[in-house]
């Protein structure tokens, strides 16, 4: 078990399927839709099933099995207005957004939703989305340097008046945003998420974000990455929460769950997966340590394009609950789940898996009190 602080309980988020093709690049049947009506119902099911967060994806151009996309910030706001408790995280790209403009949008969304809007800063892996729009494609570590400034500017604008920021990418002069977001002691401003895998991503997450999002990882991968991120956070005299991606296949029997996984991979859209693989592994290999996102992902890993199978949340409710709690013991604060048939499976998870997770966590917490 980690020597760092443990969250009282695991939080759960789900990927918003605002992009066509679902969360696996496969021709297997997916009773999931990217349209608004489907996603409103899904969001309502999720918040009534114990999910606290939803993450809206960002794609700007038809690509790799994702032919249609709804824009992330506007879609997130729509879901917020259709729910009561769910927090919705909008993924955004520095370089395609100006941070002060996003800060203004976020403040408005925060007021309209009663303080439930959040931002996931995505430094970018898809070169064409920048170059096809006439924007420069920076080298990997430069993209993360830009994201570091982006995160700092957002925080300053949300919390300070007469903001001045003189960076290499952003220059802000005597800028005051009003109204500011709904700051409270429990949540001083919209939560900021940063994802990645490389040294640059980990540094940003530790120094500037509230949350670090990891691609799918096994136990060993989580231990290595989480230790590094917390090192950066301690150096900056702060803490950061850790979210882990996982594709969840919960079935009544282990055999059924594993057969579903086998079918997903057997029916992979090979040209789309290979195209995605070529694009993202170029990005991962371009880092100085060769450890960027997807740098060592296999073909099977990339059928779920955020390595979700690696987390191994596949089996019976009991098996999945035990593995989630094992991740919590390592220091994971949140599981970001993808599903094959979102509405049905999110509801199944809430009924059959989450109660088991809470029972195991309660037992852990009781043992900790006895040994404290």
Automatic annotation (TrEMBL):
Q: Which GO BP annotation is one of this protein's?
A: alkanesulfonate catabolic process
Record-linked InterPro entries: DMSO2_SphG, Luciferase-like_dom, Luciferase-like_sf, SsuD_RutA_monooxygenase
What Gene3D superfamilies does its record include? Luciferase-like domain
User: Where in this chain does the entry annotate a coiled-coil region?
Assistant: none
Keyword list, A-Z: Flavoprotein, FMN, Monooxygenase, Oxidoreductase
Question: From which domain of life does this come?
Answer: Bacteria
Q: Which residues form the Luciferase-like domain?
A: 11-333
> Which molecular-function annotations from GO does this UniProt entry contain?
alkanesulfonate monooxygenase activity
Query: Which NCBIfam families did the record assign?
Result: LLM_DMSO2_sfnG
Identify the PANTHER family for this entry.
ALKANESULFONATE MONOOXYGENASE, ALKANESULFONATE MONOOXYGENASE-RELATED
Protein name according to UniProt: Dimethyl sulfone monooxygenase SfnG
Upper lineage is: Bacteria, Bacillati, Actinomycetota, Actinomycetes, Mycobacteriales
